[in-house]
Design a protein that fits this description.
The chain is α/β, with parallel strands linked by helices. It is 41% helix and 30% strand. It has one domain: Transcription Regulator spoIIAA (2-Layer Sandwich). It is built from three helices and four strands. The protein has a four-stranded mixed β-sheet, covered by helices on one side. It comes from Methylophaga nitratireducenticrescens. Pfam families: STAS_2 (PF13466).
Length: 98
Amino acid sequence: MMKLIFDDVTKRILVSGELTFDTAASGIYMTDQLFVETDTLDVDLTEVSRSDSAGLALLIEWMRQAEKLNKPIRYFNMPAQMLAMAEASGLEELLPLQ
């Protein structure tokens, strides 16, 4: 299960749980309204417990959503396992990692 909340203190979108084939599709729908309502798309991945290639694909899709809204997006605190997959696939250069 994946959860998304906007933290008013840090002004970041906090992602928790698994970003996998089972949860990625719901992640697209979860951000439709949230991205519209949020001025800054700073996404904190600290609480992501597990991810697979679908999780990385979801981050790419969120970049597309942000581009459509003409808003910059940044990813913070990508877990080591997810970062290793991004590096192996060459996506770390494409993802706006902080």
